[in-house]
Design a protein that fits this description.
Blueprint (H helix, E strand, L loop, with lengths): L2 H50 L9 E2 L10 E4 L8 E10 L2 E10 L3 E7 L16 H17 L6
Antiparallel strand pairs: 1-2, 2-3, 3-4, 4-5
Length: 156
């Protein structure tokens, strides 16, 4: 092995080791902050639901629907009455102001309803103010209906 090859191999090894260490650090940060992020999302969603209804639905355990995790990363069970299913979906919607965490409530009785934005209350809850039109909200509501009723998401 020539000196030039050894030098190139050393440099390449250092670069690979750096990227590996960086990837491990990112994974460790993600893993260590995952629980606090879920607590914050849960709290913001519960606050939004409390502002939306006089008797707001309570958030239960987090659930996952196959194929829907990218569009709807936070879905919580919510009791909807005797023998009925309810879910609270917290999903990012992108408008002119960037992505906003929207809170939707689904029951098998009444379908999906838009409740507001997580972390925003009062007069600031108008979706049009953030560039999120009723068409965007309707499209998300249809996706949630399909996912919750069929038990799976297909991303369409």
């Amino acid at each position: 092995m020539t000196e030039e090859t050894k030098t190139t191999l050393k440099r390449s090894s250092v670069i690979v080791a750096f990227f590996f260490a960086f990837s491990l650090a990112i994974a460790a940060i993600h893993y260590s902050t995952q629980a606090s992020a879920e607590r914050a999302i849960r709290s913001a969603a519960q606050t939004t639901l409390a502002a939306w209804a006089q008797e707001p639905p309570k958030l239960g355990d987090r659930v996952e629907f196959p194929g829907a995790a990218l569009s709807f990363p936070w879905v919580f069970e919510s009791p909807a009455g005797k023998g009925h299913v309810g879910y609270v979906f917290v999903a990012p919607l992108t408008g002119n102001a960037g992505p906003m965490c929207a809170v939707f409530y689904f029951t098998d009785i009444s379908g999906t309803r838009f409740c507001g934005f997580a972390g925003i209350s009062g007069a600031e809850t108008n979706p049009e103010r953030y560039g999120i039109t009723s068409r965007i909200i309707s499209a998300q509501s249809r996706k949630i209906d399909q996912i919750a009723r069929n038990g799976e998401g297909d991303g369409k």
